[in-house]
What we know:
A: three-stranded antiparallel β-sheet, 8 helices, 11 strands, 29% helix, globular, B: alpha/beta, five-stranded parallel β-sheet, 50% helix
Amino acid sequence: MVLGNYKDCVCARAADPGILSASQDGGIVTQLFACALEHGIIDGAVVAGQGDEPYKPVPIVATTVAELLEARGTRYNVCPNVSMIKEATRSYGLDKVGIVGTPCQIQSVRKLQLYPMGMRSVGSKIALAIGIFCMENFSYQGLEAMVEDLCNVKMESACKMDIGKGKFTVFTERGAVSQIPLKLTHKFEQPGCHVCLDYVANLADISTGSVGTPDGWSTVFTRTKAGESIWGKAIEAGYFETKPISDVKPGLDLVTKLATDKITKNQKTLDERVSFGVGKGLRNPYL
Amino acid sequence: MGLLSRLKKIFTGKKPEQPEAGSGSANAPKAVTVPKARPGAKPAVTPGDVKVKKNPRKIEKEEKPVAEKITIGHVHMSGCTGCLVSLADNYGGLFTLLDNYADLNYCLTLADVRDIPKMDVALVEGSVCINDHHSVEDIRKARKNATIVVALGSCAAYGNITRFCRGGQWNQPQHESYLPIADLIDVDVYLPACPPSPEAIRNVAVMAYLLLRGSDEQKELAAAYLKPLMDLAKRGTEACGCDLMIDVIGQSLCIGCGTCAATCPVRAITIEGGRPNINRDLCIKCGACYAQCPRSFFNFDVMNQFEAIGEAIDAAMGKGGE
C-alpha cells in the first residue's frame, strides 16, 4: 500500500524529442498535458512557470503547448500550484482543468473535491491531476543556499538541477557539474514535509517520477478511471514510448523501498510530535 | 471498497426506483388501477380520488418516500441568505435531494412554515443577535427540535463578517452583539466558508441522510466523512486567517500548497516565499482557509476512497447536480 492504489505501472518517456530536450526526465507531465490539450481533455493546466528570479517557480495557467514547454523541468522549491486552481476556473474560464503537483498538493486537490467548502464549482472541473514523486521540498532560500553556498554555483548560471542516487547535482550553462551529498541538503527541507506519508502521489490520476527507471525515462502509475482513460488515449496516439516496468532497472523495488523509507521516517516524526513537550504535543493533521 | 460498492449499489439501485416512484408517483400506482377502474369506477369512486388529484403532484411525491426521507430545516439567523442561495444553487441537484433524500420542512424563504418544527437536520445560517429575543428563542428552539445542528456557513460557525458589528445601524441601533451559534447551543457539524459551496452542502446533506437512514456500513462512511466537520465544531467559535499562522505554520505543518489562497473569499491571502501571507485588514474571519487546508484535517480513510465516494455522490444525485 505504500505505492497507493494503481491500475498500471510502466516505464515511459515522451515521444517528442522537442519535449525531451529540456525535460527533467521522461517529459511525462509536459507530454501528457500537451496530449490532453490537443485532445480537448483539458482546456488548460496549472503548472510551475518561471518566476522573477532564476529557479523560483510561480504557478501559471498554461493554455497552449508553448506555455507548457516553457515550464518544463523541476525546480526544487515550493510552488503553490493549488493557489491558481480556482482562478483557472474563474478568470481563465476553464471548464476542464489539469493540475500538476507534489503528493501534498494532490491531497489538497482531493480534499477540495470531497470537502469543497470554499471551492464552489472547482472540484468537478478538475479533469486531470498529475502527481509527481516527492521525498521532500525546499524553500527558495533553502535551494539558494544549497546551490550558491554548497555547490558554489550562481543561481542564474545553473541550467539544470537534479536529485538522484543520493546526490544533489547542479549543471551549469558552461558544462560544469557540481555535486553534493543529499545528506547536506536535509537541513533545508521544509518542516511540513516531515509529516508527509505519501511518496508517489497516491491520490493523483496519474503519478510519475524518475525513481525506478533508467536516466531519461520515468515511472508512470495510472491510478484512476480518468487517469487510465487519458493514458490509454495518449499511448494510442503515440505520445509516449513505453517499456514494461518489470523489464527496467532498478524497477519498482526501488520505488517501494524509497516510499517505505519515507513513510517510516515520517511516521516516526508524527509519533514524536505526540509527546513533543512535557505532557503536551503538537497537532496531528491526519485526524 | 466493499463498503462503497454496496453504497453505490444502493444508490444506483435506488435511482431507478425513485424516479419511477417520484415522477410517476401520482400516476404509477393509480395507472395500474385506473385503466381497469376507469370504465366502471368513474362515477362512484371519483370523489375520493379527485381530492388526491387536485392536490398538486408535488405533495403526493413527497408523501410517498417520506418514511425514508430525512427532514431538513433551514434556520435563518443574522446572515445574508447567501448560504441558502448556495444550497439552492445545486439547481437540479436540489430537486433530486428533495425528491429522494430530504424534505425541506422549514425554511423562511422556500417553505411556508411559520414555527420551527421537529427536524432531523437544522441548517443554521447566520449568527445570533443576542440583543434580539426572537433570535435567541429561535436558536434555542432549533437546538431542541433538531437531531443534528449544522452551522451552515461562517456566520453561524464563527461570526464571520458579523463579528465586525458595533451597533448603531438603522433601524435597530441597539443590535450590536452577534454570536456564533455554538456560543449559545451545542453544534454538531460545522460547514464553514462564505458561503459554503453548493457541493459541500449537498455532500453534507447526503451524508446526513446516510447517517440517519443508511445501513450500518453507510452510517460508518457518513460518520467518517462528517467526523472532521464535527471536530471543527468542537475546536471553537473563533476563526481568522491567523489560524494559518497559529495552527498550520506554527505547528510545522505548512507545505505551501496554496489552497488557503484559492479558498479565501476576499483574496486576503497571498503566498509569499512559499507560505501564506494574510492581509488582516481584508480578512473577514470566515475560517474557510483553515478548514480547507489539507493540513487542518486529512482523514485518509475517507480521502483514499475519493474516486468511489465522488462516483457514489454523483450516482445519488442522478449524475451531477448541475
